[in-house]
Write a structure and sequence with these properties.
Strand 1, helix 1 and strand 2 form a beta-alpha-beta unit. The protein is α/β, with parallel strands linked by helices. It is globular. Helix 9 packs across helix 14.
Length: 444
């Protein structure tokens, strides 16, 4: 028996992506424990039947804004003092890690890429780690654009040029980010990379050799940490270059048995076609573009005689504001038990988040993708490339266009066939994920 420690952010989509792995490991007799990066993580995983252990050093330090009324110099002093206090707090992390390892010592740490830099304090204890990629693989390739791009590749010269330009834009944006981060660090005396450098010094970690610079700030990578991609290779674009030896596609890893609250179907008037609309679990309720889009979707279908609509607003107050009075075939809620609702859906209007796309494929639900940010444009490109759905513009599509897109989606007889084919590829090797993790934990 081996012990596995999952170090995952509080984002529900990221946590959901680990549940299938965790259940497979426990079914094979292994121990699984989640390290709490927030209070929400512990509550979530315990509800799913797993244990957790406090790891306060994983939590973002609360940022106290400068008091109102301060002048520019006083505000800068406040920010620099807060930065110094944050750097001093990092000195306690090695001791906190040792305390944690006295409670639970894993044979393998399984990291979310958003917080992979927290692996550095564990490195000195010689605990191996892998990083789970809930996104498409970012490795540069002449045929594959970065996953932040909506470019659909192809073999033509024009398509290859479009891919090259997408990478150029991504690298240019990253250079601007790095310059901004350096200027901010110069002015404030603080920054994320300064924290990473201090943790590396404390642990004797060879950061210069290990840091695999990638042209996206939030996709941190270390060269010696294997990358486990939670997608089927069949879902990605064809590549020209061979993969790194420590990259593994292990399939979708969707836990279709996860515990969800029941949806109250009595509150919804069901009509012949049911649509689910959700823009994910990150920044919901705080995104003006997304909120405006949800309003247009509701306006599109509140008078449609043959459609019912469920909208996941991500925020209870927003859901109450968006609910059209007296319209029983439209239901706006804070969140939905998505796996349960997809079983009844005719189609999903989605932001193209990784979890939603995989769950639609496994449920055979056609997708109309309206990407917002991060890896969502890349997922929208893959959905269109493989013929699993259509995509639109979250900023530009009006109600008439949204309705026309839905009708076109449902009229295409090939989409259900392609979804079934991709689903079969998803389910080809159900044991691949757990075998991969076992091998890095020392089981051969």
């Amino acid at each position: 028996m081996k012990s596995f420690g999952f170090v995952i952010t509080e984002h529900e989509g990221h946590l959901n992506s680990t549940l299938s792995l965790a259940r497979m490991l426990t079914a094979r007799g292994h121990r699984v424990c989640y390290l709490e990066s927030s209070d929400g993580v512990g509550e979530f995983v315990r509800r799913q039947g797993f244990s957790s252990v406090a790891a306060p050093f994983l939590r973002d330090a609360p940022r106290q804004p400068p008091p109102k009324g301060l002048g520019p110099i006083a505000r800068l002093r406040h920010v620099r003092q807060a930065g110094r206090e944050r750097m001093r707090s990092l000195e306690d992390i090695p001791g906190q890690v040792e305390t944690l390892l006295g409670q639970f010592r894993p044979d393998l740490l399984v990291f979310d890429p958003f917080i992979l830099w927290h692996y550095i304090p564990f490195w000195r204890h010689r605990i191996p780690a892998v990083v789970l990629s809930t996104k498409p693989l970012l490795d540069e390739d002449p045929l594959v654009p970065p996953y932040t791009s909506d470019v659909i590749p192809g073999p033509s010269t024009a398509r290859r040029l479009a891919v090259r330009l997408a990478w150029w834009r991504t690298r240019a944006e990253y250079r601007r980010y790095r310059l901004s981060a350096r200027l901010s660090r110069l002015v404030t005396g603080h920054g994320t990379m300064k924290e990473v450098e201090q943790l590396a010094r404390q642990a004797g970690f060879p950061l210069e050799q290990e840091w695999a610079t990638r042209p996206l700030a939030f996709d941190f990578a270390l060269r010696s940490v294997p990358e486990v991609v939670l997608h089927s290779r069949a879902y990605d674009f064809p590549r020209e270059r061979p993969l790194r030896s420590n990259v593994h596609y292990v399939g979708p890893c969707v836990d279709q048995t996860r515990k969800e609250s029941d949806f109250d179907w009595s509150t919804l008037e069901l009509r012949p076609r049911l649509l689910l609309c959700s823009l994910g679990t990150v920044r919901q309720g705080r995104d003006a573009v997304g909120i405006a889009f949800l309003r247009r979707v509701i306006e599109t279908f509140k008078d449609a005689p043959d459609f019912s609509l469920i909208v996941s607003a991500g925020d209870a107050q927003l859901a109450e504001q968006l609910q059209p009075p007296g319209v029983r075939h439209v239901r706006v809620v804070r969140s939905v038990p998505q796996l349960q609702v997809l079983q009844r859906c005719t189609a999903m209007i989605t932001h193209g988040g990784s979890s939603s796309v995989k769950e639609c494929i496994l449920s055979g639900v056609p997708m109309l993708v309206y990407p917002l940010r991060a890896d969502q444009p890349g997922h929208s490109a893959r959905v269109v490339y493989h013929g699993l759905g259509l995509r639109g513009s979250v900023k530009d599509d009006d109600s008439a266009t949204i309705r026309a897109n839905v009708e076109r989606l449902l009229a295409d007889p090939h989409i259900p066939q392609r979804l079934a084919t991709m689903r079969s590829r998803f389910l080809e090797d159900a044991e691949a994920p757990v075998r991969c993790l076992e091998s890095y934990a020392g089981l051969r």
